[in-house]
């Protein structure tokens, strides 16, 4: 990656930010119940809550908005999105939805039954919640290095293939499919290697299980493979992405990440019979099969975003920005996950605040203090975000 941080784009529009005081932020945080999700956007100076749906769009995406075809059925905006998505995701059937969790909801309502077990390298919170909502149980099988924040491994997002095989040998009858999240969102935005994806696919084939890929950040993951996996150094990020996604039977995708749009998602597959079931549910809950709850202009912007996200200059800039930040934090002895992941940097709040017991939520304490002192809204991904109730409630 480049050693120089230089945005490979011009910024044409700006929005003023209110500069608040610590005292104001302390009061706002108290009024919000110490929950950063309850803060208003105007109360935040730097918003690092999520990158989902918060991307600025390019001038070509804004132009695409103006040409959106709002026809209820057979929209030309959908047909263009379908063409672009087929090329990247390597699937013949493209179903638009309003965001990634809608794709999960549709898919799991058809494939997940009471008592099912769904193994993954790391389910995101909405993925796990949608599985549970349909009676299943999400099971995470990451590699051992994934939980060792200070241990460097180029692909901490990998699934433990040996554990997957053992799990399928013991529980295979209860497993309708296997999932991979690329990159591993809950695991620090860490990438999954193509070697690991191929190995997981081989195990799925051995046990006659479908592989479902949550392709939320497929472009970032492809760029990591290009930079960190020797066998693919001469490949383009698009070529790597196509190879990765070809191993999936079904793909769920949030356009709010790697399509660089504010709303939108996709469900991609080849199974005609399954697609008809999904489309029937789509019509009841989202909209007709060629708009999926989205305006035609949103479909047009998503198509353009998919063209742009695999630009090597953009990916190099985006991932180097995170890497540079992680390097600076690491130099200052901040317990940050290494190596740098893709869309975020992850700090071990328990190590940062060793005097705060886990049951007193050091992650929430960190996020609260960061906002009060600096006006930065971050998010806790720990006991509160992923906590479970015990027998005492």
Which features would summarize this protein structure in a list?
393 residues; single chain; 15 helices; 9% strand; Aspartate Aminotransferase, domain 1; 2 domains; Aspartate Aminotransferase, domain 2; alpha/beta; five-stranded mixed sheet; 42% helix
Explain what you see:
- Helix 5 (125-133) links the parallel strand 3 and strand 4 (137-140).
- The protein is of the alpha/beta class.
- It is 42% helix and 9% strand.
- It contains 15 helices and 9 strands.
- Strands 2-8-7-6-5 form a 5-stranded mixed β-sheet, sandwiched between helices.
- It has helices at 22-31, 59-66, 76-89, 100-111, 125-133, 161-171, 194-206, 218-228, 237-246, 255-258, 272-285, 296-308, 312-331, 349-352, 362-374; strands at 46-47, 93-97, 117-120, 137-140, 177-181, 210-214, 250-254, 265-269, 376-377.
- The longest helix has 20 residues, at 312-331.
- It has 2 domains: 22-51 and 312-377, Alpha-Beta Complex (Aspartate Aminotransferase, domain 1), CATH 3.90.1150; 59-308, Type I PLP-dependent aspartate aminotransferase-like (Major domain) (Aspartate Aminotransferase, domain 2), CATH 3.40.640.
């Amino acid at each position: 990656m480049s050693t120089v941080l230089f945005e490979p784009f011009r910024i044409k529009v700006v929005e003023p930010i209110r500069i608040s005081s610590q005292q104001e932020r302390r009061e706002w945080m108290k009024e919000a119940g110490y929950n950063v999700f309850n803060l208003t956007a105007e109360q935040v100076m730097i918003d690092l809550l999520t990158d989902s749906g918060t991307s600025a769009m390019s001038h070509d995406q804004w132009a695409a908005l103006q040409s959106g075809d709002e026809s209820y059925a057979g929209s030309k905006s959908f047909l263009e999105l379908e063409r672009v998505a087929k090329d990247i995701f390597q699937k013949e059937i493209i179903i638009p939805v309003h965001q990634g969790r809608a794709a999960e909801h549709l898919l799991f309502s058809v494939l997940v039954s009471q008592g099912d077990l769904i193994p993954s390298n790391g389910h995101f919170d909405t993925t796990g919640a949608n599985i549970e909502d349909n009676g299943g149980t999400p099971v995470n099988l990451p590699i051992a290095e994934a939980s060792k924040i200070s241990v460097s491994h180029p692909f901490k997002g990998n699934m433990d293939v040996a554990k997957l095989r053992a799990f399928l040998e013991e529980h295979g009858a209860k497993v309708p499919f296997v999932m991979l999240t690329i990159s591993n969102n809950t695991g620090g935005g860490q990438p999954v290697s193509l070697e690991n994806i191929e190995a997981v696919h081989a195990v799925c084939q051995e046990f006659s299980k479908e592989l479902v890929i949550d392709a939320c950040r497929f472009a970032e993951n492809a760029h990591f493979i290009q930079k960190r996996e020797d066998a693919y150094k001469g490949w383009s990020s698009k070529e790597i992405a196509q190879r990765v996604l070809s191993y999936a039977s079904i793909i769920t995708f949030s356009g709010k990440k790697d399509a660089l749009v504010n709303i939108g998602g996709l469900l991609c597959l080849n199974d005609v019979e399954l697609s008809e079931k999904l489309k029937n549910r789509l019509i009841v809950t989202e909209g007709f099969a060629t708009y999926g709850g989205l305006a035609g202009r949103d479909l047009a912007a998503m198509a353009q975003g998919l063209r742009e996200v695999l630009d090597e200059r953009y990916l190099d800039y985006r991932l180097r920005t995170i890497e540079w930040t992680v390097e600076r934090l690491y130099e200052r002895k901040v317990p940050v996950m290494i190596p740098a992941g893709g869309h975020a940097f992850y700090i071990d709040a328990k190590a940062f605040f060793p005097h705060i017991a886990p049951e007193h939520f050091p992650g929430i304490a960190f996020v609260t203090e960061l906002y009060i002192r600096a006006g930065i809204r971050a998010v806790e991904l720990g006991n509160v975000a992923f906590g479970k109730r015990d027998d005492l409630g």
